Structures are given as structure tokens and as C-alpha cells.
Amino acid sequence: MSAPAETPTPPAPPKIPFQTFGQLEFRVGKILTVDDIPTARKPIYKLTIDFGPLGIKQCAGGIKAYYTKEQLVGKQVVAVMNLEPKPIAGVVSECMMLASFTETDLSLLRPDKDMPPGTKVA
């Protein structure tokens, strides 16, 4: 009888200095609007998100397969605020929402209770 095959251990992610991580600015935002981006190659939404004193930002999110527009409007999310803006399918994405995901599912990260838009996340 042969021994069961071992599941390979995935490689550890590269380590970054704590100071580098500290440069990222995470904030709570509230989704105001969700629109389709018909010119996108993949199904994505254009979202407007209120970050309180930091203003309203646009975000292009590849979450259309996991959420309807109605499920997203009014939802709080956690986003990285200080990445360089990136054009995606004609939309300038000004922040990046955080999510946990598997090969078949995705869940946006959010506070476990309502927090004011713009609240820092650490």
C-alpha cells in the first residue's frame, strides 16, 4: 500500500518591511452608486464611494459576478486610498476595495459595525 500523496505547501509570500506596509492608507467608505462599464473586456462595475473628509472617489471593481448593484449601494467597504490612480476600461480607479476570495467566490471586506466614512483602518 502506498503512502497518500502529500499536498504541496504553497510558497510563502515575500516579506516586506513593516515600514512599507505602514505607508498604505486604509479607510472605510460607503458605496453611493454602481454602474456598468460596457466597454470593459471583463464584467466590472464603476463605483462611487464616499470617504467622508477625503471626498468621493471612483473605483473600478471586478466584482460584478458576485454582487448585484442593489447589494452594493449603501454597503461599507475597506479600501486602499493612496495607490496611484489607474485607468481601467475608460474609468480612472482612484482607490482599491479589499476583498477575500477563492477560485469561485469573493467577499468584500467591511467593518463589522457602521463606521463614519473616512475612518482609518489599521
Coarse shape: globular
SSE pattern? HEEEHEEEEEEE
Largest sheet: 6 strands, antiparallel
Under the CATH scheme, which architecture would be assigned?
Answer: Beta Barrel
SS summary, helix count: 2
Task: Quote the distance from N terminus to C terminus.
Answer: 51 Å
Oligomer: single chain
Mean pLDDT, to the nearest integer, reads 94
Summed up, the domain count is: 1
The total strand number stands at: 10
Structure description:
Helix content is 7%, strand content 36%. It has a single domain, classed as OB fold (Dihydrolipoamide Acetyltransferase, E2P). It starts with 17 loop residues before the first helix and ends with a strand. With 122 residues, it is mostly beta strands. The strands form three sheets. Strands 1, 2, 3, 4, 7 and 10 form a six-stranded antiparallel sheet that branches. It has a two-stranded antiparallel ribbon with strand order 5-6. It contains two helices and ten strands.
Summary tags:
122 residues; mainly beta; OB fold (Dihydrolipoamide Acetyltransferase, E2P); 6-stranded antiparallel beta sheet
Topology, please?
Elements: H1 18-22, E1 26-36, E2 45-50, E3 56-61, H2 69-72, E4 76-80, E5 86-88, E6 91-93, E7 96-97, E8 99-101, E9 106-108, E10 120-121
Antiparallel strand pairs: 1-2, 1-4, 1-10, 2-3, 4-7, 5-6, 8-9
